[in-house]
Design a protein that fits this description.
heterodimer; A: 40 residues; mainly alpha; 1 helix; 68% helix; rod-shaped; B: 409 residues; alpha/beta; Rossmann fold; 44% helix
Chain lengths: 40, 409
């Protein structure tokens, strides 16, 4: 029983870490390209 | 690592069943939501932009965001007792002098001086102003504006880009929100498949549901600030260049491939207004292109929104229009646009596919599209006349007076 609850807790930690990883990846892949004016 | 997962799986059942995988994904979503709530991003405020410092009227705001920010525009904010105007356009909304962009050079600002109130509500204008706005960008901006539910919209079409299939988009950051707005309509999927990347579609849909995804540009700025000290790059200032760079070094320093090719356009040896005629002729392929589909959908979506809207074709340089070849080329664009008259709801949309140049006196322009500063007053007067007539026709009560501070430079 205890092992099962420990499993739930590990799942939660793993999921939260994955959520943070998703946001990290999305933020880290934002470009910082300058606007290049191409006329008119 | 796999050994750790095998141990977690065998000892604690983590990831060993579908239900466990489901729970991990639920926690992932909880994490995304918690981080959205717990980690506020810097204020997304348009008032500090360079344009707004020039506009100098707190009731006229330029709301274009950074080109890397998938939100595309800053939030359009109005008070209940204001008459909300959304103005979508590019650089043709802005005049300048030889050296600077002086005060009172933005057509929306001049428009507000002429029409300060409608139905006894003060007019507040949010300008969806993006330089070099192409037709796909303009459609994305219109979709964004419609979502803000303004009382009135003005859409400025640029004759150089409206039909030009050689340049459909120059603001890729607008694609995610447009993708989210268009995904429900299968008839728009071919357009999305052509102009939006899978990343745009995914982040657009997720961004409308999760702030943490929508604000990724702000998070990225935060991250950059924190990581700057850790970068292994040598960030010291380079020594000053020793003399003029070689031609090869100059080309290597150009910001993008298009900069090189725009210096080497394969066109006949032309001078003066011949160049304008050539460019306008090339801007009108007269065949089915995405531009045509986008224009039709944009006008249909504006009509379906039931938001009163003025759509007009921006003026071009008078001295160029005096050249018959330019006149014919512009007339070709007007003729193609006129086909779309039956796509608009005449009750709410005033669609003017004939260039404003046709009814303006001779005006000073610094190139084919961009006007010198004094011309903006005259152009805005014509737009104001049309807007006042339209607003009056739909039983609104615009206060269409003379400019109170007329004569101020």
């Amino acid at each position: 029983m205890i092992r099962r609850f420990v499993g739930f807790a590990i799942e939660a930690v793993l999921g939260l870490m994955l959520g943070a990883l998703v946001i990290w990846v999305l933020a880290a892949t934002v470009e910082s390209a300058p606007f290049v004016y191409q006329g008119y | 690592m796999p050994a750790v997962f095998r141990w977690l799986s065998s000892r604690f059942g983590v990831g060993a069943s579908l239900s466990s995988l489901f729970r991990i994904h639920v926690w992932l979503l909880v994490g995304v939501i918690l981080i959205s709530a717990a980690r506020p991003t810097p204020e997304h405020n348009a008032r500090t932009s360079w344009y707004n410092l020039q506009i100098d009227d707190p009731l006229v705001s330029e709301i274009g965001a950074d080109i890397n920010d998938q939100r595309g525009f800053h939030p359009s904010e109005f008070a209940d007792d204001q008459f909300q105007v959304a103005w979508i356009g590019g650089s043709s909304l802005q005049a300048r002098t030889e050296d600077e962009i002086p005060a009172r050079s933005f057509i929306p600002q001049l428009f507000r001086e002429w029409i300060p109130e409608v139905d006894q509500r003060e007019v507040k204008i949010d300008v969806y102003l993006l330089q070099a706005l192409r037709i796909w960008d303009e459609y994305a901006a219109v979709l964004e504006a419609i979502e803000a539910e303004p009382d009135y919209m003005v859409v400025t079409l640029n004759p150089m880009w409206v039909l030009n299939d050689a340049a459909i988009s120059s603001w890729p950051n607008l694609a995610p929100n447009a993708a989210d707005a268009l995904i429900d309509d299968p008839s728009r999927w071919p357009l999305l498949a052509s102009l939006a990347s899978p990343d745009d579609v995914l982040t657009g849909i997720l961004g409308s549901r999760f702030d943490a995804v929508d604000r990724r540009w702000s998070y990225a700025n935060d991250l950059r600030e924190q990581l700057t000290d850790l970068t292994p790059l040598n960030r010291s200032e380079p020594p000053p260049a020793d003399g003029e760079p070689s031609e090869l070094a100059r080309i290597a320093g150009l910001p993008s491939p298009i900069s090189f090719w725009s210096e080497h356009v394969d066109r006949p040896d032309l001078t003066g207004t011949e160049i304008d005629a050539y460019n306008l002729e090339r801007a009108n392929p007269r065949t089915g292109t995405w531009n045509r589909a986008v224009i039709g959908w944009m006008l249909e979506d504006i009509s379906a929104s039931r938001i009163p809207t003025l759509v007009y074709l921006a003026p071009i340089r008078s001295s160029s229009l005096a050249d018959p070849a330019v006149d014919v080329a512009l007339a070709g664009i007007e003729e193609q646009l006129s086909i779309y008259r039956d796509r608009v709801d005449p009750e709410t949309v005033e669609f003017s596919p004939i260039s404003l140049s046709r009814e303006l006196p001779e005006l000073g322009f610094r190139d084919l599209i961009h006007m010198w500063s004094p011309s903006a007053d005259i152009v805005s007067e014509v737009i104001v006349e049309r807007a006042c007539a339209q607003l009056t026709n739909i039983d609104l009560d615009p206060k269409c007076g003379p400019v109170p501070n007329e004569g101020e430079s």
